[in-house]
Amino acid sequence: QVQLVESGGGLVQAGASLRLSCSARARTFMAYVMGWFRQAPGKQREFVSAVSWSGDDSRYADSVKGRFTISRDNAKNMVYLQMNSLKPEDTAVYYCAADGPFKRSTADNEDDYDFWGQGTQVTVSS
What we know:
Elements: E1 3-7, E2 10-13, E3 18-25, E4 33-39, E5 46-51, E6 58-60, E7 68-73, E8 78-83, E9 92-99, E10 115-116, E11 120-125
Parallel strand pairs: 2-11
Antiparallel strand pairs: 1-3, 3-8, 4-5, 4-9, 5-6, 7-8, 9-10, 9-11
């Protein structure tokens, strides 16, 4: 069982930065692929980024490549999403998710993820 709690969301202007954090309660956190998803009003939840258990492999949605960076600290059971050059279209509820344990690849399909946080709101004004 994995419990996830996101934090760090807020209201910012376009061009600003935010860092989202996800705190995990899990006996074997480092065995899980960790991902970030987001859901904008009226839209389906979409993949943002994922990182492998070791942190060596990561993937990003095309819409955030070059602006967002995912990282993890297995010693602290934390996952982060650094978001730079934010745009109004980044406005959404952002969810942290865990896939595993012992998955070899970083999935971009939400159906692959077994555990989810409650989400944190990010609002970017123009």
